[in-house]
Amino acid sequence: MSIADLDRIRAQAVEAIAASADLEALEQQRVSLLGKKGSVTALMKELGGMGPDERRAAGQALNVLKDAVAAALDARKAVLDAVALDERLARERVDVTLTVRPEQLGRIHPISQTIDEVVAIFGQMGFAVAEGPDIEDDFHNFTALNFPPGHPARLMHDTFFLPEKPDGSRLLLRTHTSPVQVRTMLKQKPPIRVIIPGRTYRCDSDMTHTPMFHQVEGLVIDHSTNMAHLKGCLIEFVKTYFEVDEVPVRFRPSFFPFTEPSAEVDIGCSRAGGELKIGAGADWLEILGCGMVHPNVLRNCGIDPSEYQGFAFGMGIERIAMLKYGIPDLRTFFESDLRWLRHYGFVPLDVPTLTGGLAR
Predict the structure, then answer these.
(1) Which of 132, 217, 273, 336 could disulfide-pair with 196, CB 3.0 to 4.6 Å?
(2) Domain boundaries, given as residue ranges, for the chain
């Protein structure tokens, strides 16, 4: 095995590699040269029958051959990979100048659309989005929110409880998104301004109630926020969300364990001719509850009520979606009926903004 023979073998191998038309042919060349039964591998096996000096010289020459073959394989593979990529890009090319066909994009569910609308409105007011777990404990869902022992909301006919733990405690599916208010106050120092959308769960099911539904709550905590700020915030929300310039709004005294004073918010409407219309009219429609955060809640969350105060509000997302988009039955939100979704759904590219419009 002379140096001239090895040079000839190397030239032939490099030429064959360069002639490989595709990656499959290149792999065949690699196997025939460097595989277990390849020609270069066979030459390497002959080293065992040589004398020490001859083996040393032949080994160096074979390593040069092997390195040259490997380099030629790598270079050709890079070229063929580039060619394959170009072919794929050409084959999968998308004409971005084509008009978008919304019917192929599906529809955004009214709940998702409404959440985006609410977040867009309050986002413009400086609210940040906060989230929390669906599975809660008694402290975050009840105790910290000033629910006394024996309160009806704690009973099993109202709340989905998980199996009892060895210590007697039980986790539960949150009955409102208010536990996120508690978690936010526990981990963040005032000032706080958050909006909290999410799923909630209660043991109830009929035309206007479902075991799982969606709420959105707001929380503001600082030194000077008062009831007037709460009223202004909610009045502005109602006008913007329903896209009606003049909507009568009234605040009725109410009771919630976690706010004091508390109020229910009604908006004006008309039911003339059996048609519900938001705006000026002879009737009123309740849409949400609100109030100033109870001092006990602030204390439970480690905030001094003599220094800080704030307001909170909450509303059902399905309810305000039904009012705005004329959806008559709450249960249809969860029936997974594509015909219903095509009728009430929204085009994915129509992202709600205050400048571009909430619902288009």
Answers:
(1) 217
(2) 3-91, 109-344
Distance between CA 195 and CA 237 in Å, rounded? Answer: 13
Q: Which residues contact 9 (CB under 8 A, 6 or more apart)?
A: 39, 40, 43, 65
Whether residue 217 contacts residue 191, with contact meaning beta carbons closer than 8 Å, is answered with no
Q: Are 321 and 303 in contact (CB under 8 A)?
A: no
> Tokens 């002879």 label which residue?
282
Q: Token pair 């035309």 is at which residue?
A: 207
Kindly report the length of the chain: 360
Q: Which of 134, 271, 156, 313 is nearest to 213 (CA)?
A: 134
* pTM across the whole model: 0.68
Structural contact between residues 214 and 345, judged by C-beta atoms closer than 8 angstroms: no
Q: Which two tokens stand for residue 353?
A: 């903004």
What's the pLDDT score for residue 290?
A: 95
3-state helix, strand, coil in the chain (%, to 5): 45, 20, 35
Contacts of 80 (CB under 8 A, 6+ apart): 20, 22, 23, 26
Contact 146, 258 (CB under 8 A): yes
What's 109-344's CATH class?
A: alpha beta
> How far is the C-alpha of 25 from the C-alpha of 270, rounded, in Å?
78
Q: Return the structure tokens found at 27.
A: 């792999």
pLDDT in tens, 63-96: 887 888 888 888 888 988 898 888 888 888 877 7
